[in-house]
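Assemble and predict.
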Amino acid sequence: MGAYVARRLFFSIFVLWGAVSVIFLVLRLVPGDPALILLGPDANPSQIAALRERMGLDEPMLVQYAIYMRDVVQLDFGTSFRFGTDAMQHVLDHVPNSAQLALTSVGLALVIGFPLGIIAALKANSVVDRIISVFSLATQSLPNFWVGIVFILVFARGLQILPSYGQGTWQHLVLPSITLALPFLAILVRLTRSGLLEVIHEGYVQTARAKGLRERVVIFPHALRNALIPVVTVIGLQFGALLGGAVIVETVFAWPGVGRVLIESISHRDYGVVQAAILLIAAIFVFTNLVVDLLYGYLDPRVRLAG
Amino acid sequence: MSTPTPPDEDAPLLSVRDLRVEFGTRAGVVTAVDGVSFDVRPGETLAILGESGSGKSVTSQAIMGILPKPAGRVVGGRIVYRGADLLTRPPAEVRKLRGTEMSMVFQDPLSSLNPVFRVGYQIGEMFRRHRGYSRSEAREAAIELMERVGIPAARQRVDDFPHQFSGGMRQRIMIAIALALDPTLLIADEPTTALDVTVQAQVMKLLTRLQREEGMAMILITHDLGVVASSADRVLMMYAGRVVETGDIREVYEYASHPYTKGLMASIPELDGRSDRLTPIKGSPPDLLDLPPGCSFHPRCPYARDVCVQDDPDLLHVESRPGTHRAACHFREEVLTDDRERV
C-alpha cells in the first residue's frame, strides 16, 4: 500500500511535467505578445523590446523553457507579468474561493444525486424513474454557460431573488454552485441507478433476502456497497470535468476563483500565472485520482493495490 | 367434552399445494411451476430432482419468498408452513421466518456471499439482526459456527473476505449462515454442483451430519441421482414445471413408474460395468414457452400413444405399489412392469 502510493506519486511528477510543458508551448504558440498587451497599442517598439528583454521573452524558446524548468524544480513558479508578484501565490490566493464553490457543488451533487439514483433504481421503469431519468439526461446535456445565463435571467433579473455575480453572502453561492453541480449530479444519478440495477439480481442480494434481512438492510449496505464501486471510479474521472466546468461557471458568475484567474491571465498572456494555475489544477486532478484509486481498493477487497 | 388432539407426529412442517409460478420474459409469460404439491415432515429429507428448467429452483425460491422481482410471481396455490399460509401472511411476518425458521443454501457460494464484507460479518449478521447481539458477541458466535462447519483456524480467518477461501470453504460459510439460528427447515439448492468433485462428498456429509444433529427437515434440490440416493428419504421428480413422480426414495429408484424417471435411471453410468453403454433420454428439454399439448414428456417418450398428446395425466397412485408412490403417466403400471430398456 505504502509502496503503491510512493510509486503513484513518483509517476505523477511526470504527469505534472507533461501538463506544464504542454501549456508552456501552447502559450507561446498562440498569437499575442504579453509586452504589447501590457504596454497597450500606443507603446513604441523600443519600449516593447525593452520590456520583452526584462521578461526574458527575447531568448529562444528552448532557453526560456530550460530556465523555467530550472526554476520550477526549485519551486519557483515565476512572476506575474501583470502584478509583478509571485505567480503561484497569486493563484493560491484564489484557491479558497474555488474550493468553496467546488465543495458546495460536489456536496449538492452527492446529497441529491445518490438518493435520486437509488429511488430510480428501486422504482425502475416507473413514472418516478422516468421523471428522474429525463431530468438527469436534460441536466447532463445542457452546457454550463447556458444554464448559468438562464439562471441569471430567471432568478437575478426576472425574480430578483438572488445576486447574479460576485461573492460574499451565501446567496451568492446558490446559482454558481447549482450550475456547476448539475452535470455532475446527472452523471451520479445515472451511475447509481445502473450500478444498483446491475447488482440487485446478484446472488448475494438474494442471500441477503434469504437471511431474512429487512429490505432496507438488503439495499444498504449489501447491494449499495457493491453498486458504488464503479460509481466511485467514474467520480474520479469526472472530477476533471468538474474543474473545467468551474472555469466556465466562475467566469459566468464573476466568481473570484482559480478558474477566473486562469481565464484573465490567458487573455493578458500572463504566462507565469497561467502556468502556475495549470500546474495546480493538474496536481489537484492527479491527487484526486490517487485518492479515488485508494478508495476503490477499500471498497472492493478483491482489488489488491500492487506496489 | 372433547379432549384436545395430541400433536400429530406426522403433521407436515411444510405443505405446498397446487403451486403455480409465472415468469415474465421478453418472449412471453412462462409457467415455471405448474400445480406442484408436496409435504415436508419434520426432520425428513425431500429431494427434488429434475433438469435445468424443470422448476425445482423456482419452487424453492417461491417457498423462501425470494423470487426474482418483478419477473417471477406466484399466481396460485398455497405454501403452508406450520399451519400458516406464507402467501397470505404479511410480508414482514414472513421475512422474520427467513433465516430463523427456514434457511437456504445456494448453488454457487462465490456469488452467494457478498464480496465486499468479511465472512465473520456475514455470519454474525444473523445474530445481530435477528437476535440483537452486539458486534463482539456476533463475532464470537461466528467463530464458533465456523469451527462447527469445519473451517480450520476459524479465529484467524473470521476477518477474511469470501474470495480468500476455496470453493468448499465458501460453501461451508454459506452453510454456517444458513444454520446460524437453528432453522427447522433447510432448503439446499444444488449445494454441491459448483464445487470440485472431491469436495462435493465432504460438503454433503457435513450437511447431512448437521441435519441429523439439529433434527431439521431438508429440501435437497439437485440433478445428481447419486447424492439423492445416499441422503434423501423421499423424492419428487420434476419435469417442465410439474411433478411427474414421487414416493419414498428406494421405491422410486427400484420401481420407477414414469418413463422420465426410468430414462434417468438408465442414463446413470454403472461402475460395475453391467451395462457398457450409457442410455441417454432422446430429445431435449422442452421449451417452456411452447410446451407440447397433453403430457409434456410425450415427444421424448418411448411409451407415448395418442392419449398422451390429448390428455395431460394427473399425478396418481401407482396401484400395484404402496400408497405414497405416485406417477403422472397414463401407462404407469406398464412402465413399472416393463423390463426392457426401451429408451
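Chain A has 13 helices and no strands.
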